[in-house]
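Reader question, answered in our methods column.
A reader sent in the components of a multi-part assembly and asked whether the whole thing could be modeled at once rather than chain by chain. We filled in our standard form and ran it. Here is what they sent:
COMPLEX SIZE: two components
ENTRIES:
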Amino acid sequence: MNWLVPLVVLVPLIGAAAALILGKNPSAQRIVAIVSLLIVLGIGGTLLHLVDTQGPLAMEVGGWAAPFGIVLVVDRLAALMVIVSALVLLAVLVFSVGQGLADGDNETPVSIYYPTYLILATGVFNAFIAGDLFNLYVGFEILLVASFVLITLGGTEARIRAGTTYIVVSIVSSMLFLASIAMIYAAVGTVNIAQISIRMADIPIDVQVILHIMLLVAFGIKAAMFPLSFWLPDSYPTAPAPVTAVFAGLLTKVGVYAIIRTETIIFPGPELNIVLMVVALLTMVVGVLGAVAQADIKRLLSFTLVSHIGYMILGVSLGSALGTSAAIYYIVHHIVVQTTLFLGAGLIERAGGSTSITKLGGLLKSAPIVAVLFFIPALNLGGIPPFSGFIGKLALFQASAEQGSVLAYVLIGAGAMVSLLTLYALIRVWNMVFWRPARDVEGYESPLLDNVTEAPGGRTVQATRRLPRLMIGATAGMVVVSVALTVFAGPLFALSTRAGENLEGPSTYVNIVFPGTSESGGDDE
Amino acid sequence: MSVSIVMLAVMATLYACGVYLLLERSMTRVLLGFLLVGNATNLLILITAGKVGSAPIVADGVAPEDMTDPLPETLILTAIVITFGVSAFLMALIYRSWRLAHEDSVEDDADDIALRAGTSMVPSDGNEQDSSDTEFGTRGEAVISTARESRPRDDAAVSDAPSDDGGPR
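And here is the structure of the entire assembly that came back:
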């Protein structure tokens, strides 16, 4: 079944090409985009089943044997990430279709939106299945360039300004990644991740630490780890709601995924674990303090996004199988929940005409369904017991307690506090936006009236009053998925435990690529 | 692995100049910095190939030790293509930024400035955050024409409030 592996990348790429050709016909574009993501979702499900029952898959592209050709690797972690990303991409796509239809852009659509979106998907999937450091770089570049286009979509002044920061930071991190690849190649003479892992053991420890730091900084910028996270709350909120949702859900997680691979396969040693733990602590605390200070929902959510990256880094930094498993479960939970919250923010914006909590009020009465769709993921992110956020955090705390150092206990305390502060920030949004009566809002005007006067023409009162069913449906679907993460937490956590155990030590991964060998160094090609 | 000192010196100079330019506020200089850093990185990859030898594969009877390592060159080719694409996008971005604001500098985040100044209210977000800016579709295309018509604007006003007026009014 190896042939399924490259399809994960090929299908959205071909879909993007088809959508670009169909540029004049938006409804055909929509169908192409949705169908390609549905196919990937199906492939992802099949892959996950295959990998979980029959062991991981490796595909040598073009039939060139492993260290010379490019190899694509799907283990449990990669398959899980592919299926969750496909799900999120699909939901956000449906949401944006709903938004596009409601805006009545049938006549003059931005015809590049769907192709770019599919290319973004291509990049994300390519990064997940890359078994080759350079291929990982290419995957990153594909998704970054697509994200450059999406973040500056429409080319308004605010978006160009925000996009500039994002783009410059991203290209610097890419250059750093490329330079790290060059240095690693100079050190071990290969870019194949499995072979790097074999040969890295022979490299002097100080050189290893330098290479390790370079890779971590490059991935840390993408994952928005604390000192390198300044760009995120600045650039994400100005993009269109669905774009922000998919960026928040997926792009940073691709960085975290790369960090997991780095920590478990390329540099499995514990040298930088303490540094990572401190970084995790700072990311959590600084992120959430930023969130508490914000008045704009999208910015607030961006800060909580940064803060919760800290939890995942915490899981990775523990260097144990339990920690990695907990981090994997937390990534899955966070991709779903954070995306849902951003979609919820999109609905609030649609229903209330703003995302500033000082200007909104009384939405519980005027849009009760939005209130429910925001409330559930908000509690979930805050880690209220029955939900998956609680389960993920509990697992992380358990892994920290198992490690047992003082720093680990400090992290447990900080994690609990950050969880409460997240809840505080989100409940503040809830109180201001939904709970307080509309008349308490200073200078309140009916959003309905606002929309009508501001409409560029032709927009009827009927259209603004009703929230598009597709948008509600997509968000509701994501809420259902996030609740399903709780209901099926047992099997899912068992799966992420198995995935985490695969990553305990690099030997499992190396065996996927070079079956049956524990290979000794090998000469340079 | 033997490395040519000239290559190393060139690479170091390119990195130094590139990083210096990247730290500038002007977008055009950032672009130039990016190009320099990109080329420096390409040189770095080339240097990792080690000793220069004859072309691999094409000629018979060359011992593997005498061949140049071909892999870094393929990596460079890919990297060059990516750098090219990104710089083209950056140029378009700079042009767009210049058309809109008549300046090409990297601006601070307005909300950050507001927070630093201690004002809890986000300035001018009424314009920026309302629904017509954050939707895409018609608006995206419409922006281009309306923005063009609504120029020429007061430069000073733009630099004071970079995020004001995001959308078409």
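What stands out: Chain B has a mean pLDDT of 72. DSSP finds eight helices and no strands in chain B.
Send us your own complexes using the same form.
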